[in-house]
């Protein structure tokens, strides 16, 4: 494996300080993809995205083209962009909305044209104050430029795009919770079926919900063709993808890498990427795709960054975030903090998640504090089993959304990989790393 | 024997929303512009809560009454919705809400120690406000700035990775007003205003809403039929 040098599909402007301005955008090929799209039929644009085999970049990895094709025919349909990036250690959409908002808007208008929708809502995480300002400013400029609004570039196609600020709730990243929130309600995920908002979405109308990064790929695909995109990567994982690398690495950041061609080892250790673990320490474990994902150890370093490859190894590429823990990290403390996160963010609708997350958090906390009991390990696994029977991967579902069944991953990973550490905490009455 | 005095029926509170009484005229105008962007007024509920926080620094009961009237729900529904969201404060907060992320990436970067330092130096626990009312300290979940850990936001503006030393300087700068230009007081979220309304063909939008209303009525009729 090696670090390849693919074209920069979504990060080509990141080297410019003014990458967020219309001037820079137009000077670097901006809105050419939209012009190309408007010169073709909506069906041809959708077919191009289908040919790219673009997998959704939000976390579930569902093919974007297929999602579009599922949109129920109706007089009113909507496109909603999910920019509620809140998965711990995921910070790629943050980069895209702040640094290249026009690319997002161009992608959005291309998708709106393919889907023939007239109203798009870009739901941005409320904590992205600068991102909200950048996207709104870019949108104002895009309207004035004729790229959004009525009769776009003289094509006869019209669409309005509205930036909608969230207000702080992890669960709103779940697409049905996001729609509830956008309707002015608490962010409670909706009962499934229907599984896809493409059937019943915003205000009950058929709705496509796509991630910010997914949208940001569309201008390049329109300019360069779906086949060129599909030629990058491998297997089902085509194109490039943004990987957010954090934790114990010399050079944390967001890297655009060719899917499958690059490995976790490359991402973490290559000098041009993560630059390895500092202070001469070794790798203890890493989380490959958001805190819902089961952890990996050094033996999985050679796995390629591909959706199916990581799934077959028992975890998920998820949101594209990788958290590295060095060998001085307390596994109990790390798993406890992740559990605390889920406990805080459980929306409270379903008993296994609402009650289970609190139980698990309190047990993990007392073990970390040195007040754990021997039977706590079995108790933890029992509580995990009540949330997701079998504590398997992919997890069994007991709740309306996947937040609940995601809770056991970090605990079962930590117990499986580092059982001795739990026992030391319990027997010695404290954390050995403090 | 005199006829018993008829007991007056309890006065039914008017269901018609009162005119906004707390939000300023400018805020009400901005609120109406926002409402016009959505097919359903209630969709503007959260954005209007942000506006109210811009005016008052937090979400006051009086503002919630106004918002309820503007979007056509009860004040209880505004509170019930707002209380779900971390950024909507139904109790007063300081001029600056300082959020220290302690989630996994920041934890690995020393966030727990930073939060402990912040609590000691400010003299308040997470969730508390300093006695001078200037700073509210929060322990935050991931703020999506993980390559600058431990990550801190002030009023949702990123201030970069912090050490205990730099944190004290940050607090001093906040108190002295040195950061006023880049960090507005709490509640002001987006300083860039939308410059256009809905531009798509008004007839198409009207038709869109008519079809939506019909579909909604049909769904409600079906739901009523199922219930009886």
What's the arrangement of secondary structure elements?
The complex is a heterodimer of chains A (434) and B (228).
Chain A: H1 22-27, H2 32-38, H3 42-52, H4 64-69, E1 78-83, H5 92-99, H6 101-115, E2 119-124, H7 129-145, E3 160-165, H8 175-182, E4 207-211, H9 212-216, H10 218-224, H11 226-230, E5 233-234, E6 237-238, E7 240-247, E8 253-258, H12 264-269, E9 283-287, H13 307-312, E10 321-326, H14 331-345, H15 351-369, H16 376-387, H17 403-406, H18 408-417, H19 419-428
Parallel strand pairs in A: 1-2, 1-4, 2-3, 7-10
Antiparallel strand pairs in A: 5-6, 7-8, 9-10
Helix pairs in contact in A: 2-6, 2-10, 3-6, 5-7, 14-15, 14-18, 15-16, 16-18, 18-19
Chain B: H1 25-35, H2 45-56, H3 61-71, H4 75-82, E1 96-101, H5 104-108, H6 111-122, E2 135-140, E3 152-154, E4 157-158, H7 164-176, H8 202-227
Parallel strand pairs in B: 1-2
Antiparallel strand pairs in B: 1-3, 3-4
Helix pairs in contact in B: 1-2, 2-3, 3-4
Describe this structure as you would to a colleague.
The complex is a heterodimer of chains A (434) and B (228). Chain A has 434 residues and is of the alpha/beta class. Helix content of chain A is 41%, strand content 12%. Chain A is built from 19 helices and 10 strands. Chain A has a 4-stranded parallel sheet, with helices on both faces. In chain A, a hairpin with a 2-residue loop joins strand 5 (233-234) and strand 6. With 228 residues, chain B is of the alpha+beta class. Among the domains of chain B are: 17-92, Arc Repressor Mutant, subunit A, CATH 1.10.10.1590; 96-176, Glutaredoxin (3-Layer(aba) Sandwich), CATH 3.40.30. In chain B, 43% of the residues lie in helices and 7% in strands. Chain B contains 8 helices and 4 strands; from the N terminus they run ααααβααβββαα. The longest helix of chain B has 26 residues, at 202-227. The N and C termini of chain B lie far apart (48 Å). The model of chain B has no long low-confidence stretch (mean pLDDT 90). Classes of the chains: A alpha/beta (434), B alpha+beta (228).
């Amino acid at each position: 494996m090696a670090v390849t040098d693919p074209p920069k599909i979504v990060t080509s402007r990141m080297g410019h300080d003014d990458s967020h301005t219309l001037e820079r955008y137009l000077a670097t090929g901006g809105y050419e993809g939209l012009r190309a799209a408007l010169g073709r039929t909506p069906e041809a644009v959708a077919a191009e995205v289908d040919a790219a085999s673009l997998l959704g970049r939000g976390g579930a990895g569902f093919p974007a083209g297929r999602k579009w094709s599922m949109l129920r025919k109706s007089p009113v349909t909507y496109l909603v962009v999910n920019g509620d990036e809140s998965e711990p250690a995921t910070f790629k959409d943050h980069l895209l909305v702040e640094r290249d908002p026009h690319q997002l808007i161009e992608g959005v208008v291309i998708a709106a044209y393919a889907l023939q929708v007239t109203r798009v809502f870009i739901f941005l995480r409320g904590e992205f104050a600068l991102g909200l300002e950048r996207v709104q400013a870019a949108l104002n400029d895009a309207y004035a430029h004729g790229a959004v609004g009525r009769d776009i570039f003289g094509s006869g196609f019209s669409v309005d795009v509205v930036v909608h600020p969230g207000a702080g709730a992890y669960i709103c990243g779940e697409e049905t919770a996001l729609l509830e929130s956008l309707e002015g309600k608490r962010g409670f995920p909706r009962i499934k079926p229907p599984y896809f908002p493409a059937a019943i979405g915003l205000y009950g109308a058929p709705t496509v919900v796509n991630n910010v990064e997914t949208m940001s790929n569309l201008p390049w695909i329109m300019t360069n063709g779906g086949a060129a995109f599909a030629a990058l990567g491998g297997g089902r994982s085509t194109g490039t993808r943004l990987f957010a690398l954090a934790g114990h690495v010399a050079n944390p950041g967001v890297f655009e890498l060719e899917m499958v061609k690059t490995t976790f080892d490359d991402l973490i250790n290559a000098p041009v990427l993560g630059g390895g673990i500092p202070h001469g320490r070794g790798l203890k474990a890493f989380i490959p795709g958001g805190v819902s994902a089961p952890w990996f150890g050094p033996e999985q370093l050679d796995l390629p960054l591909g959706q199916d490859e990581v799934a077959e190894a028992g975890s998920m590429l998820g949101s594209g975030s990788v958290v590295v823990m060095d060998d001085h990290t307390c596994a109990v403390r790390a798993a406890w903090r992740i559990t605390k996160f889920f406990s805080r963010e459980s929306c409270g609708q379903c008993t296994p998640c609402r009650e289970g997350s609190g139980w698990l958090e309190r047990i993990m906390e007392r073990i970390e504090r040195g007040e754990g009991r021997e039977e706590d390990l079995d108790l933890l696994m029992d509580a995990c089993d009540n949330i997701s029977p079998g504590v398997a991967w992919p997890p069994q579902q007991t709740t309306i959304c996947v937040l609940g069944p995601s809770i056991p991953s970090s605990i079962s990973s930590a117990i499986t990989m580092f059982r001795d550490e739990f026992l030391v905490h319990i027997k010695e009455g404290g954390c050995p790393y403090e | 024997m005199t006829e018993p005095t008829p007991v007056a029926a309890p006065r039914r509170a008017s269901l018609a929303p009162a005119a906004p009484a707390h939000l300023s005229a400018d805020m009400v105008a901005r609120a109406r512009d926002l409402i016009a962007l959505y097919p359903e007024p209630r969709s503007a509920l959260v954005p209007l809560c942000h506006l109210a926080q811009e005016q008052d620094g937090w979400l006051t009961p009086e503002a919630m009454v106004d918002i309820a009237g503007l979007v056509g729900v009860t004040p209880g529904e505004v509170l019930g919705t707002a209380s779900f969201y971390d950024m909507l404060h139904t109790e007063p907060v300081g001029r600056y809400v300082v959020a220290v992320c302690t989630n996994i990436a920041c934890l690995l970067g020393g966030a727990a120690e930073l939060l402990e330092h912040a609590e000691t130096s400010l003299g308040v626990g997470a969730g508390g406000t300093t006695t001078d009312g200037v700073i509210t300290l929060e322990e935050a979940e991931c703020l999506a700035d993980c390559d600058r850990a431990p990550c801190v936001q002030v009023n949702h503006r990123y201030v970069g990775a912090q050490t205990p030393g730099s944190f004290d300087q940050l607090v001093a700068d906040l108190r002295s007003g040195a950061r006023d230009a880049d960090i507005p007081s709490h509640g002001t979220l987006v300083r860039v205003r939308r410059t256009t309304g809905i531009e798509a063909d008004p007839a198409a939008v009207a038709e869109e809403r008519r079809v939506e209303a019909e579909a909604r009525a049909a769904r409600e009729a079906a739901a009523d039929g199922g219930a009886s």
